[in-house]
């Protein structure tokens, strides 16, 4: 069995898909370390195109789990837990329903849906639109429900939460901590449905083992860049990447 796992890992490392996946993983790791988000939004479209959603999405979920373990402890004290924990709770409850979509939906259709969603999110961010209303508990729960469904089905919970949280008046450090706490809680919970549904098999574990060191190398670098690179530079670069990855999944 060890020999077959080694051959599968070597086959992945020597394929052209590895080069594309590794580049996307480095960029996603830098984004996640810098801003607190970006892993799934970038990697779900790329991995789903390279390996199909039923393989790519579980790989993203497993990698999110390890990245969250690195970032979560420091950010827990800085986050607005009164705001974030209800969103997390609603999202966790909706994860199984989203996972049913992942299990049942056609792979090509789901990949294109992921691409369209990421593309629209990038364009919406580029337009400068923000939600400027209040953040009452019912609305927090509604955002959490939407995020949980998306996380289970596509591996991405970020877009609705990011747009919603950016409306707040918190400083950049607390925005980042809020996002890290949300993604950390959801990262742990999101592993259970695909594991229960049999989506995390040997191939998924091999791909995760190959890509995870690339991610874990990149995240600390991104965290250091948070104190160096002006946020306006990062935002422009991130928007370009979102539109590019959405188009890659849509047309790939």
Question: How is this fold's topology laid out?
Answer:
Elements: H1 2-13, H2 16-35, H3 39-51, H4 53-76, H5 81-104, H6 107-127, H7 137-154, H8 158-165, H9 172-189, H10 192-196, H11 202-225, H12 231-251
Family: Belongs to the 4-toluene sulfonate uptake permease (TSUP) (TC 2.A.102) family.
Transmembrane segments: 20-43, 55-72, 84-103, 110-129, 141-167, 179-196, 202-221, 233-251
Main location: membrane
Shape: globular
Unreliable residue stretches:
none
Count of extended strands? 0
For the largest beta-sheet, the strand count, sense and barrel status come to: none
Helix- and strand-based class? mainly alpha
Query: SSE order, as H and E?
Result: HHHHHHHHHHHH
Over all CA atoms, what is the radius of gyration? 17 Å
Mean pLDDT: 81
Spatial separation of the terminal alpha carbons: 33 Å
Strand composition percent? under 5%
Q: Helix share of residues?
A: over 70%
* Contiguous helical run count: 12
Pfam families: TauE
Family: Belongs to the 4-toluene sulfonate uptake permease (TSUP) (TC 2.A.102) family.
Organism: Pseudoroseomonas ludipueritiae
Transmembrane segments: 20-43, 55-72, 84-103, 110-129, 141-167, 179-196, 202-221, 233-251
């Amino acid at each position: 069995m060890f020999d077959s796992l080694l051959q599968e890992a070597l086959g992945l490392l020597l394929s052209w898909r590895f080069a594309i996946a590794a580049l996307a993983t480095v960029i996603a790791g830098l984004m996640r370390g810098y801003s607190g988000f970006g892993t799934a939004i970038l990697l779900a479209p790329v991995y789903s195109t390279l390996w199909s959603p039923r393989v790519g999405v579980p790989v993203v979920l497993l990698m999110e789990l390890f990245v969250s373990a690195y970032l979560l402890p420091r950010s827990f004290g800085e986050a607005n837990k009164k705001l974030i924990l209800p969103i997390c709770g609603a999202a966790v409850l909706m994860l199984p329903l989203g996972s049913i979509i992942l299990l049942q939906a056609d792979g090509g259709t789901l990949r294109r849906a992921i691409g369209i969603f990421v593309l629209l999110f990038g364009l919406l961010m580029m337009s400068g639109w923000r939600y400027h209303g209040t953040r009452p508990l019912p609305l927090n729960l509604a955002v959490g429900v939407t995020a949980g469904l998306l996380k289970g089905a596509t591996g991405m919970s970020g877009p609705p939460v990011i747009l919603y949280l950016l409306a707040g008046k918190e400083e950049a450090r607390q925005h980042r901590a809020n996002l890290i706490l949300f993604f950390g809680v959801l990262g742990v919970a999101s592993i259970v449905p695909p594991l229960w549904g049999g989506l995390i098999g040997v191939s998924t574990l091999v791909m995760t083992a190959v890509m995870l060191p690339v991610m874990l190398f990149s995240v600390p670098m991104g965290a250091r860049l948070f104190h160096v690179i002006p946020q306006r530079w990062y935002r422009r670069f991130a928007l370009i990447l979102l539109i590019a990855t959405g188009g890659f999944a849509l047309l790939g």
